[in-house]
Design goal:
Blueprint: E1 5-8, H1 16-28, E2 36-42, H2 50-60, E3 65-71, H3 80-87, E4 94-96, E5 105-111, H4 113-119, E6 128-133, H5 134-137, E7 141-147, E8 150-151, E9 155-156, H6 170-183, H7 185-188, H8 196-205, E10 211-219, E11 226-233, H9 234-248, E12 250-253, E13 257-263, H10 271-274, H11 276-279, E14 285-295, H12 307-311, H13 316-320, H14 323-326, H15 331-341, E15 344-347, E16 351-354, E17 357-362, H16 366-371, E18 375-376, H17 384-389, E19 393-396, E20 403-406
Parallel strand pairs: 2-3, 2-7, 3-4, 7-10, 12-20, 13-14, 13-19, 14-17, 17-18
Antiparallel strand pairs: 1-11, 5-6, 8-9, 10-11, 15-16
Helix pairs in contact: 1-2, 6-8, 6-15
């Protein structure tokens, strides 16, 4: 295992001074003076004290040429004002990952179909071209700065995931997300170690010519505080932070619950991102139970992916059983659909049977919600106090980052 420096732990909360000093010392010893550094940071859908981290990083890199690249994945572009607030100031050389522009990408090569088959335990055998934001390729060093949380596609987020899908081309995004969908969110979320999707991401990252480093942080969800920071290469740093996240961001219940109300914070602007309120709770919902996503501020299913309104939300087997009909759509969109619908079965005679009901209490019109194969609840009728008093209901404030599981 490569050398990694860590400050903090699952039972600690670091002070700003501790974080700043650790970052300064870590980067001072990394041999970055005079080198060009692309700093890859999350967008506003991830919790962490980014202004604190970025100030510490840029102060430590004052003798380096620095570009800040916002890892949008396929999320919406951030405006200048949003970036100023998100980053904590006006920094020079700030780029959105403009995934919608072909000229954004550099071609790093191809992962062969045989290698994809090996990585995926033969669930997939498709060669995949590896394309990455050219800003990463054009710098000497790629420095990932961002949090690690349980994640529905890869197990735990962070590390090389900031490259793929964070600033990657559509092909790797689609293949990696569909591989996660085949495994299923409930099976992979919060899984420690290298999952097949993590292995695919690491394989793609091995093609990046820049030196790859990471400041992987473990955030206190819902606050601007940090439990821990790990610095090293993107694999060892991520591994250390994921181990702490597994102790910090996973809660265990004694028994399944009949109903969950996930109260979604404003940082999730559409269901594409707010669906995390389902992913993180699906494992504790009883068969035949319900998850209500309470997000009155949300008015769209997916701002960047309107095709989800056409295909709707379905379980994995719904798509696999009719693969010729769906195979030419973006697999990332199909994956999102299955992740929000959860476990279920489909056959051509009896149709689709789903383990859990998903209900939206949002600002999305009822016809759009029902047309997408989801339940509808008028958010104006939601009485959170009454739900909290109901012994059959589990209300989760600030949902989306903490994973809930049943005790073994």
């Amino acid at each position: 295992m490569a050398e990694v420096a860590v400050i903090g732990g699952p039972d600690q909360v670091l002070t700003e001074d501790e974080v700043t000093a650790f970052i300064g010392e870590a980067l001072a010893g990394a041999g970055l003076d005079g080198r060009s550094v692309c700093v890859i940071v999350p967008d506003a859908t991830r919790s962490c004290p980014l202004p604190l981290l970025l100030k510490a990083v840029t102060d430590a890199l004052k003798n380096s040429q620095v570009t800040i690249l916002v890892a949008l994945g396929t999320h919406a572009e951030m405006s200048r004002d949003e970036l100023r607030s998100h980053l904590g100031g006006d920094y020079p050389n700030v780029l959105n990952h403009e995934w919608w522009k072909p000229e954004t990408f550099a071609d790093l090569g191809t992962i062969s179909s045989d290698r994809v088959g090996e990585i995926s335990d033969e669930m997939l055998r498709d060669a995949v071209p590896v394309k990455l934001n050219r800003a990463v390729v054009e710098h000497d060093v790629a420095l990932v700065v961002g949090p690690v949380f349980p994640h529905e596609v890869v197990g735990f987020s962070g590390g090389n995931k900031y490259f793929f899908p964070g600033v990657a081309g559509q092909e790797v995004i689609d293949l990696s997300h569909w591989l996660g969908a085949l495994i299923t969110s409930a099976s992979i979320i919060g899984t420690p170690g290298v999952t097949p999707v993590r292995a695919l991401i690491d394989e793609a990252a091995s093609l990046i010519p820049a030196e790859k480093l990471a400041l992987s942080v473990v955030a206190q969800s819902g606050t601007d505080a940090l439990h821990a920071v790990a610095f090293g290469d993107t694999i060892s740093s991520w591994r250390a932070a994921a181990g702490i996240s597994a102790q910090t961001h996973v809660r265990y219940l004694d028994h399944p619950v009949r109903r969950v109300v996930s109260v979604m914070p404003p940082k999730y602007a559409d269901i594409w991102t707010a669906a995390k309120g389902f992913y993180k709770l699906e494992p504790v919902v009883a068969d035949g139970g319900e998850v209500i996503l309470y997000a009155p501020h949300v008015t769209q299913l997916a701002a960047m992916h309107p095709e989800i309104e056409q295909i709707g939300y379905h379980c994995r087997d719904y798509f696999l059983g009719q693969w010729d009909k769906f195979r030419d759509l973006h697999w990332g969109v199909l994956a999102h659909s299955t992740h929000l619908r959860g476990a279920g079965t489909w056959d051509p005679v009896s149709g689709e049977h789903l383990r859990v009901q998903v209900t939206l209490a949002t600002g999305i019109p009822e016809d759009v919600v029902r047309g997408a194969n989801l339940g509808y609840l008028d958010p104006a009728t939601v009485d959170l106090a009454a739900y909290e008093a109901d012994p059959d209901t589990f209300v989760v404030p600030n949902a989306g980052e903490t994973l809930y599981r049943l005790k073994a």
